[in-house]
Amino acid sequence: MYGNIREYLKKELDNIISAGLYKEERIITSPQDSVIETSEGKEVINFCANNYLGLSSHPALIKAAEQGLKTHGYGMSSVRFICGTTDLHKTLEKKISEFFGTENTILYAACFDANGGVFEPLLTEDDAIISDSLNHASIIDGVRLSKARRYRYENANMNDLEIKLKEAQAQRFRIIVTDGVFSMDGNVAPVNRICALAEKYDSLVMVDECHSAGVVGKTGRGVTEHFNIRGQVDIITGTLGKAFGGAIGGFTTGRKEIIEMLRQRSRPYLFSNSLPPMIASAGIKMFDMMTETNALQKKLYDNTEYFKEKIIKAGFNIKQTQSAIVAIMLYDARLSQDFAAALLKEGIYVIGFYYPVVPKDQARIRVQISAAHTLDHLKKAIDAFIKIGKSLKVI
Ligand SMILES: *Cc1c(COP(=O)(O)O)cnc(C)c1O
After folding, report:
1. For residues 314 and 269, what is the distance between their CA atoms, to the nearest angstrom?
2. CATH architecture for residues 61-292
3. Which of 97, 146, 183, 212 is catalytic?
4. Domain segments of the chain as ranges
5. Which one is catalytic: 164, 242, 299, 373?
């Protein structure tokens, strides 16, 4: 009977509301872009999308999606291994391998699925997964779905990782797994040092490049380019839902035999629908654009450097970042919410994060810079930060 659980759910929901943790959704009535319109009727400059390269509403991608829709139809109505593989899917997989300099690639409906389906087919209870404490929820879930022994090391702490690697010598195979860029701070994981430790302690390395691919490295190839260690990371997972166009889709790319095994045994691949052809078509176009020019990476880098410099000069504290994420520290939870609300009134859309999303007393506003931001957008945001910062006595 629904009655009992309804009462229980109502009470839990009330608890969420009274703890101030209820997530409201703002309704956007325009395409996703650097400037958006919301149902509240106001235009705002958007600093909280993962639209790092400004591709979410790029005309070339819309055109490529339309083209795919025309030539290959709307839906696949099948999983890949039954009748859900088109030439577009195969081409996109090849483009991703070329982009990362890897041997083979497998597509998923989302990176959440890529991470959810990567460990269980490869590792057994005889093996070990050594995971960064700040890894994404999808990695945590993926680890849970495998029977491997779990080790957790403190965020980006190589001493702690080494301790865990020593303990994990008891197991048959080991894999170290980390986000490439940690989304709350914007710091790049020390993947060069992780690879060195992996060499010393006989371990595989997996990097989730969701916030780093397209963004980090001179040509946007991610952390392996940033550290000049291409070919050393065994497994890379990533998303088409952030810098790479922002629609939907995930992938795992890396060593040939690993990808081959995932195609045979990875459950989100075997038991979930194939990507719509229009997404694959736009994805192909997007990787072609990435190969032709690095203009967007350069613009994003320049925008981020400009914003960081002005914000620091204004007297704000920010977290160390090597990505397009700038965490402006306010420390106090209430203040982070008041600050974000005041910025919205100024036409600047950002989100304030506080415990438990970030550690206690580490509340902040996370600003995500895009190549689509103009100098005028950045100046408006900086002016608004200074105005509100003064009125709330932060600076
Ligand atoms: C966003 C994100 C994911 C999930 O990607 P989707 O394609 O949206 O499912 C996985 N890992 C990390 C690190 C992310 O930031």
Report:
1. 49
2. 3-Layer(aba) Sandwich (3.40)
3. 183
4. 19-48+294-391, 61-292
5. 242
